[in-house]
Amino acid sequence: MHHFDWSGIPGALPTLWTGVVVTFRITLCAIVVGILWGILIALMRLSGVRPLAWFAQGYVTVFRSIPLVMVLLWFFLIVPQLLQNVLGLSPDVDVRLASALVAFSLFEAAYYSEIIRAGIQAISRGQVNASFALGMRYGQAMRFVVLPQAFRAMVPLLLTQAIALFQDTSLVYVISLADFFRTTTNIGDRDGTTVEMVLFAGAGYFLICLIASSFAKGLQKKVAR
């Protein structure tokens, strides 16, 4: 029978916090870049310019058809060479973190673009026509009329996707990046408390996701009013 030993957790908290910071850095970067790039992808897909629409559709199809762990491994092999050879960055740069940021941002943009596209399409065409009648161009109508209304309805879905993204960040384990999950397992392997540390990591993810989910549900109720 396994005897649980939790005594090492308090002393490991400073190290665990560094892993938490890495996890949140990846999450926040992927949310911001993913939404911004996702908006452009959604607008390209809705545009009447066929090459742009084809590119956007192909982009979404590719990234939604490939497992995230495979995308992470691909970018881990490609991005370091790109950063060091093309941009001339120092070898001291943490290429594992850089490749994870790029991979998650581009991968999540495919999912965010579909949420944003659905939100844009939910806005009445009459409002777009009214914007054109007032002398606005397509970009102005999207910026000042359509997107503000669409985002109001999309916020709960965007937050739900962000929660899933936060959970998926644990996959950086495969490229040996010291995020929260990897840090806990490293400490567990070192101290012989692997079971305890994995359980602790699971409890941490559960607590953060529970708080975020409650926040998302509260926003959804406000939007529905």
Question: Can you walk me through this structure?
Answer:
- With 225 residues, the protein is mostly helical.
- The protein is built from 8 helices and no strands.
- Helix 3 (68-86) crosses helix 4, helix 5 (125-133) packs across helix 6 (138-168) and helix 7 runs antiparallel to helix 8.
- The model has no long low-confidence stretch (mean pLDDT 86).
What's the structural blueprint in terms of helices and strands?
Blueprint: H1 9-46, H2 50-65, H3 68-86, H4 95-122, H5 125-133, H6 138-168, H7 180-191, H8 194-224
Helix pairs in contact: 1-2, 1-4, 1-7, 2-4, 3-4, 4-6, 5-6, 6-8, 7-8
Radius of gyration computed on alpha carbons: 21 Å
**Secondary-structure class:** mainly alpha
The low-confidence runs, each spanning 5 or more residues with pLDDT under 50, are none
Number of strands: 0
Largest sheet: none
Q: N-to-C terminal Cα separation, in Å?
A: 53 Å
Approximately how much beta-strand content do the residues carry?
under 5%
Output mean pLDDT: 86
What percentage of residues falls in helices of 4 or more residues? over 70%
Q: What string, H for helix and E for strand, traces the elements in order?
A: HHHHHHHH
